[in-house]
Every structure is written in C-alpha cells, then in structure tokens.
Amino acid sequence: MSVTLAAESLSLAYDKRTIVDGLDLAVSAGQVTAIVGPNGCGKSTLLRGLSRLLAPTGGRVLLDGDVIGSLPTKEVARRLGLLPQQPIVPEGITVVELVERGRHPHHGLFKQWSREDESVVAAALEVTELVDLAGVPVDSLSGGQRQRAWIAMALAQRTPVLLLDEPTSFLDIAHQIDVLELVRDRNAREGTTVVMVLHDLAMAARYADHLVAMSDGAIVAEGTPGEIVTPAVIESVFGIAASVVADPTTGDPVVIPHRRKRDQP
C-alpha cells in the first residue's frame, strides 16, 4: 500500500525542549490510523508536526512524496485537513460561517463560491446534526456542539488526508460513536486517509485499521489493533496491568484494567 504521509527522522520541540526526537512514521494511503498513548507522550505534538503547524528541528515530513514545508499554504490546505485539539473560535462567527471556511482552500482568483460549495457545506451540517444551529454563534454553543462544528468544517474541506486531534473531546458516548462512524464512512466512501489522536483504546481498536502507540516522544509499537492492544503493550505504554478480551459482537479487543504498575508490591 502506498504511503501518503511520512515522517523521516522527525524531531519536534517547544522552547528548545525536545518532545519528539528522530521519529520515523509511514502513514498508509486510504487507512485510518490512530495514535494512542498517555498524556504528555507527544501525540498532539506529532500531529502538529505532520500538519506543518510546528516546524521540525530535525528531519522532515513528506506529503505524497513532497516535503510539506516547501509546499504553498493553500496547496497544503487542499490536500490535508486538520482539526487541532483546541481550535480558536473567531469572535461572533456562526456555525455555517465556520463550516464555509472549510471551502476557502478550493477557491481562487477565477473560482468563487459555487453550488458545489453550498452542497458540501449542507452535507457537513447534516451529518454533524448542526442544521438547526447553522445561524447560531459558535462561541455560544456547548463544548460538544462546538466540537461538532469544527468537525463539520474539517469535513467540508474535503481533503484526501485528514488529521484529527482528539475529535471526540467534550462529546458524550453517543456523539463519540457518531463522529467516529463519520470518519470511517468518509474513509470507506472516499478513500480518505485519516490520522487521529485518541485516548480511548477501545474506540481506537474499533475504528482504526492501524494503531501507533507512543511513549515519551517515541513510537513504542505499531500494527493492527489485535497486535497492539495486548497486555504487554498496555503495560509498557500506560503502566497498568490489564486483561484484553474480544468483544462478543465485533471481535474487537476490549481492555479490562487491573491496577497501576506503580501500585505493585
């Protein structure tokens, strides 16, 4: 399978403090990849590096074989969409205006707003259940509603690669499932390559084709959910003892935690 997004010897830092050091990662085209690991392990930092929001201190990121840092900003926005962890809401902007911003990379001097844009925005509002809130200011929404508005904008961007940093934050379990079903549906229908940071191992195992487990800024293990969601990997990455059983309906691995590693005698 071809690689659409790759990190080669990638190093990333904040204020000269290295978070990711010499990391290699190849994201296969057309797959859903989930990055998992404990808080502070570098998951979001890696996603920022892959999206060009954070410039490397070493190594490089390749998008379809091109060094992403050398591409024009608008070209990157047409090829790669990003939902950051804590996006900043423009003051007074309504839900529909926010979602419409997802279409801006597709416009230019000779291509303005079109019926296709209207259709794409309407579809994004529909699948995120925001039609009735289209005219409401984003900053007046609940945390969950606001998250869905940002997801709708990312969906409206219609890029072949989509990066999502904790897309289920602030959502109840029903809407978590709705969002991840949307991601899988877009992947299945359009072949969209998805990389997402998730905290919930069960959700990651259920909705991702490939898991990347991180600890202390490095990749500890990667592979299929069945290969990664094991007692040994869970103890190594999260520091807890756990059993793993198969979901009786789907066969997906389910984690049953026992105790913290630090609590062992």
UniProtKB/TrEMBL annotation:
Annotated localization: Cell membrane
Species: Knoellia subterranea KCTC 19937
This protein's superkingdom? Bacteria
Question: One Gene Ontology cellular component annotation?
Answer: plasma membrane
Q: Which SMART domains match?
A: AAA (SM00382)
Query: According to Swiss-Prot or TrEMBL, what is its membrane topology?
Result: Peripheral membrane protein
List the protein's name.
Answer: Iron-dicitrate ABC transporter ATP-binding protein
The residue ranges of the ABC transporter domain are 5-241
**Per UniProt, what is one Pfam family of this protein?**
ABC_tran
CDD domains for the chain:
ABC_Iron-Siderophores_B12_Hemin
Q: Which PANTHER family match?
A: IRON(3+)-HYDROXAMATE IMPORT ATP-BINDING PROTEIN FHUC
Q: Which UniProt keywords apply?
A: ATP-binding, Cell membrane, Ion transport, Iron, Iron transport, Membrane, Nucleotide-binding, Transport
Q: From the Swiss-Prot or TrEMBL record, what is one GO molecular function term?
A: ATP hydrolysis activity
Q: Which InterPro entries match?
A: AAA+_ATPase, ABC_transporter-like_ATP-bd, ABC_transporter-like_CS, P-loop_NTPase, Siderophore_ABC-ATPase
BP GO annotations: iron ion transport
